[in-house]
């Protein structure tokens, strides 16, 4: 089965990562590459690491250019996917790496994004309870945000097992590629190297409602999330340090058991042996997430930490993994758990 | 008034930073520089950034070498200060950058450091309530750990004002110099660049009891701290993201007022204007800490974030600032609030 | 003697570094800060590391705003200084950190910058032969480019002593701040971290004629320069690796002697002891340049390497040092040879 | 055809990269992993990015452990390969990533390494003239040093075509993994981040004779090399900036033609389109080298620049590529030209 795939937004970081992974996917054939300001250029000038595609031309993002593919990946700025998606045939698989179809609550969408809510698509985090069933056979996938991917992998087992109080605290450090490729002075190398800084503090980050939605689904009751994203001086990676007060009577063995149950059979989440902790450097370029959890007896909190590559498992790898599920391909096809280190 | 200062541990990172600051201090005269494995070498080979001291020889760390100074700074591995300090005359000011005399609770010391407790000295964080009075005229100072400096600056105003519930969560990212200069494979540039990772998770970090001790003093009741330190790919800096549930009825104005009261007159802590957030890059090489705070209304938490240079305000700058207080010099003498950026 | 200084271009990297140094200068008083797109903003939002100036407002860059100062520093894009400078009174000291008045040859200027040549001002590299005499009492100073500062410090002693053949090779690695603060996608942190790349290869870089001009002056005959600049993943610093074939009969002792003669009494250039080599990390934030030289007997080449901080000795520090000379102040006043490390 | 491969030195950086590539090689089966101080540990604790091998145990490096494989890769400290290799059967393919068998001249070996010369094996840089013929069917391969790989790819076409004078200048910047994984204080992240520095200046680097040997072979006459290695603040990558005076009458078209001829059909060297320059970030984790060349008409020099990943094309990828040639497998099998970026 050959899957002909188009990528809209091929000149950005998510688009480049999709292409890197699709080049290694044995059933994928790369079709149209489209862009906005990059249209007309050769990909070699835009993504010089993708040597096999150097001569390919970027086309303008239009419904015509995207037609005739089995899968269309949308790697567009938030809020632009809906307009493109509605022009694409229902028989095509559309995988949206943007936020447009992630949230179930229209009021949340409007509060955080300021535009009308476009709808809700099956959520591309197969590790969540029930997610594979919702993805199987679907023709529309909403790829999770990179921070929610990291935070949910760290926390959902604790909530699914009923071990944690409903107030979670998430502090996550992201590499700069998470902010995209647009030229911004505050993302210049001179500004980010040697510095760490938070942003969107105090409940304002758009990824907060996405975390709450899926933790609540896992828990069966509402969960609040105090989320603080920080920018770290590295190109890739998210380290999410998450915690929540343990429910009375919960012990370390309960916590360990819940995570072993959640991840024992997962191909792309590795619960580390006790005493070892995740590092983003160990999942650089890999679709594998690392997770570790501990119970701090004195503070009474479950501390769960995950490391993912924000562009791979956090975006493009999760997208390809979900595509595999939707199309009935082996879920791991074309995806690697091996990082590039050091 | 000329202050003749010796530095024990002159070849390490804390020792080098002490010398950098003392070179700029108008009343300090740099006396003996001592070390262990570096004894006999010229400082120029060990600390090539300290050009004016390039020809100075490092002496072995002995009571004789340290005798005859007005101030002795100890920048030694944890647990080694007590033995040196007891050989130093009571009339000398001894400023210990190690942990030996920080903790008030002997059981805490023994649990975390595994040796007999040596005692408790006045704590070198002048911004804490009552700290200046304890430092004035003292001849013994325990310089805070770099993480506690950052966490306490972020959190103590909330506790001193009675705004926060007694369970605090601290997630802090530190530059690699915080781990010292000993050759360790896990601190090689190849390992740390491009990677973030936690360590000492789940209550085990030695800086936890130090935070609890001083938050409790500010609050007037016990406070638990869930502390997770992480290692960030940068040489210097700590970003501490701290939070605690707000007490019922606490509003954003209460929080802002508490921090303005705490820091309105402080020379070395800058409460940022609302809407701006700390960055470690803005305090690189500076003795200034940046603090910001917000109330997350949905999660019900006070989120307070601080940025300090772990070697300056977090160690050597705090040491010199405390020395100034102890000796009756102007507190800001020889210390700068200006960072080196970008 | 109080010197009232204005800085045009206060929101850029060179402007910020000028302010950092002027804040530490005992005779300087900081007057107007001007900018273009930043006009109307508070400096605290633009240069958060300059805490003492946080409340100062940036004014539009006009002759009126700059009038009434003793010194005006111009930190403007190349080609914009001339128009501003001609509006400033002849009694004011104007220190141009741009390229406008560096080149003696109008044809070179026009070939590399594409606009009419504005003139030639005394060159602000006091270490060059005859430079101090030209700077003393001047009211106009052209601050060298950062690459020429590094390359000339490495090479001019060999040419002044007649030791080197007239074909020099310069390969220099610069931190990203050398490219300025304008938002450019190729300078994003995501692009520069983890990567080194050359630019302007093959004779095209604007700093080449500046190097040739001053090496020729030192040598007394024309010198060609093959110059390749590269961008390194660090915020600051230039490491210039320079070489030239040795003239027949030149020995290692001749080379050493020439450099010792050139730098024996220089306050801001440190010829390292034999066997030790420069590092940009050792001059971070310092006005000191480190130089080392060796004769490779097998290749027959003199290899001279320098490290400078491109923003300090390479721009703003050189500007303040030259200002001191021009105004008859002690040359080292307010400038430090101490770097911030690690 | 399944190739059973052992890796001696599995806990180092070269060993880890060999395993990363062998895991992706469709005909390779990973056999024994051996080490010295790491023997007895699980690989998951040593190379956490190699998830599929996490449970494998590291054995002591002995002839017994390495026996019974089709290929043995030696990733040992320089000078230790010979003793191991002589215990391995002649029917096994031994691929030495160390220096022991690279040099043809015993005097060079003894001068630079201080031990008896062990011999000379076919050189694992298939792109060199005649290299593939020497590698085909061999049972012993000497993998080039990472710097020589970069410098030779940049320069040999100019020498093979008779375009360059016999004095070459090579200035190369390497990521820190080139220095290996041994705990050294000068390689700590705190020391290398934010700093560039040279080492082994003035003819003393061990890779110089290796460059000379192969440039001379390409040129048909002796070539001197002035080589300066520098350490750059990044984990991986080498950027080699190389130049040599052009022979009289050589024009830009001659130069371009020579490089197009050399690299037109090479799977793992990409001569970039004119006007674009190599970047190490574009070959991160890839076995592809990027090369560009220009003639500087004013300086009269051919400037050739290459970028390789020191661990991939510069070591482990070159080793696997050479193994493929030696065993008669398709040369590109299991190797990728795609980098991980940003």
Description of the molecule:
The structure is a homotetramer of 342-residue chains. The longest helix of chain A has 16 residues, at 312-327. Chain A is 28% helix and 22% strand. The first copy, chain A, has helices at residues 13-23, 43-46, 63-66, 81-85, 106-113, 131-135, 146-160, 189-192, 208-219, 252-263, 312-327; strands at 3-8, 28-35, 59-60, 71-74, 93-96, 140-142, 164-174, 197-198, 224-231, 238-246, 269-271, 289-296, 301-308. In chain A, helix 1 (13-23) links the parallel strand 1 (3-8) and strand 2 (28-35). Chain A has 342 residues and is of the alpha/beta class. Chain A contains eleven helices and 13 strands. The first copy, chain A, has a seven-stranded mixed beta sheet with strand order 8-9-7-10-13-12-11. In chain A, strands 3-2-1-4-5-6 form a six-stranded parallel beta sheet. The radius of gyration of chain A is 19 Å and the shape is globular. Chains in contact: A-B, A-C, A-D, B-C, B-D, C-D. Chains C and D meet through strand 7, helix 8, strand 8, strand 9 and strand 10 of C and strand 7, helix 8, strand 8, strand 9 and strand 10 of D.
